[in-house]
Amino acid sequence: MREDANPIPVSQSRSIMTELVFPTDTNHHGTMFGGTVMKYIDKISAIAAIRHCRKPVVTASTDSMDFVSPIRMGEAVELEAFVTWTHRSSMEVYVVVRAENLFTGERRVTVTAFSTFVALNEQGKPTAVPPVMPGNDQERKLHDSAPERHALRMKRRQERFSTADSETTDDDRKL
Ligand SMILES: CC(C)(COP(=O)(O)OP(=O)(O)OC[C@H]1O[C@@H](n2cnc3c(N)ncnc32)[C@H](O)[C@@H]1OP(=O)(O)O)[C@@H](O)C(=O)NCCC(=O)NCCS
């Protein structure tokens, strides 16, 4: 399917989500919990990945995430996600998170992140997805740089497998 599938424009997967930050979303500094931001990132990325391939997906991994500025109570948090590149069954999703002071209109980027999602078939096995057709300079830049990030992820995955194997006890293997 992969080779002859029509490329999907980034506009099909581009997804936006806006939330208001309430006291229950914040810590004792009055800034948003990192875990809550991560949950939103996972959710909007999954929507973008499903819009790209129109199949069920699972999160395979998330690259490191840098929180460059805090998000404060009462601000709006806006997440924008789209699929940048695909391999066979996997899709790289880019997310940018912005905070907005609703009274002044000041907006700033608080987090950017890349995640990888894998499409599954009816048997729950990885299945091929169509390629991406970038449409503007930002989309092309992210598309062209993706194979390098993919190679790093595959290297990291290999290293994690070795660590997980060395952590597995005989009792774990019996389960
Ligand atoms: C992700 C998962 C489907 C991969 O299955 P698998 O049996 O290892 O399959 P494969 O080795 O054939 O890999 C399938 C694809 O996943 C990609 N992949 C697997 N692990 C990955 C990782 N850690 N990071 C990035 N991509 C990964 C592979 O590169 C491959 O991509 P490709 O088809 O585009 O080349 C499987 O590990 C899984 O189900 N993990 C749990 C997912 C989950 O529960 N997520 C949280 C809730 S949604």
UniProtKB/TrEMBL annotation:
At the top of the EC hierarchy, this enzyme's class is hydrolase
Provide ranges: composition bias, Basic and acidic residues: 137-151
* EC identifiers of the protein: 3.1.2.20
Instruction: Write out the ranges of the annotated region (Disordered).
Output: 125-175
Among InterPro entries, the record links this protein to: Cytosol_ACT (IPR040170), HOTDOG_ACOT (IPR033120), HotDog_dom_sf (IPR029069), Thioestr_dom (IPR006683)
Domain HotDog ACOT-type: from-to ranges: 11-123
The residue ranges crossing the membrane are: none
Alphabetized GO MF terms: fatty acyl-CoA hydrolase activity
Q: Give one Pfam family.
A: 4HBT
- Superkingdom is Bacteria
Q: Which UniProt keywords apply?
A: Hydrolase
The family note in this entry says: Belongs to the acyl coenzyme A hydrolase family.
Q: What is this protein called?
A: Acyl-CoA thioesterase
